[in-house]
Amino acid sequence: MIEFDAATVTVYAARDGGGTTDEVRTLLHPVTCRLTERRVAVIGANGSGKSTLARLVNGLALPSAGSVRVEGLDTVRQGPAVRRRVGFVFSDPDAQLVMPTAVEDVALSLRRLDVPASERAARAQEILARFGLGGRAEVPVHALSGGQKQLLALAGVLATEPSVLVCDEPTTRLDLRWQRVVDDLIDGLEQQVLLVTHDLEAAARADRVLVVDAGAVVHDGDPETGVACYRELMAAAPVPW
What we know:
Blueprint: E1 2-14, E2 20-35, E3 39-44, H1 50-56, E4 65-70, E5 73-74, H2 79-85, E6 86-89, H3 102-110, H4 117-130, H5 146-158, E7 164-168, H6 176-187, E8 192-196, H7 200-204, E9 208-213, E10 216-221, H8 223-236
Parallel strand pairs: 3-8, 3-9, 6-7, 7-8
Antiparallel strand pairs: 1-2, 1-4, 4-5, 9-10
């Protein structure tokens, strides 16, 4: 369960030419909700604040006011314990793939579970096979396709056995074939998933949808109404030339 209690994110505005000013900019206005559903989608325009909301869940961003709790653990006071429970997948897998080969990357993730070094390679091979990457275990990561990289990023995160998975636009860089593969994988997970996405079909399959606009949650409810709300917002918004 994910709980937001008047969670707010503010930063000091940037000064032209560098540095900061005393002006405070609100990236996310107070959010209060309890997310218990298995699949929660977050949709909104670029720059709306949806990624900021997602990053609050595992402590990549911290609330300036209010609080965020995951399974009762406060992200500020109990950050390491929260991060052991929350996996995070970025839109760009290159941001989180750090080892030379696929099997080494998954093996690195297994260190968090205290898997003995002598067992990590074999366990990593099993995990890769489960994700359809068994034949790519020794392939250099840079030689993988974009879809294979995203699968590997998911495999590495899920290898740590999180109870909550946050996916920040995981299919944005993928073609339709790989988008379907990643969407199907995420849909079939046992974990609670918070999915930030521009894919309205994926959002429509969620149990609950949050719509974020100008740093505020403007809809929180069923997917059909949420997607309709977002479409209306985009139809009315001026083009940001």
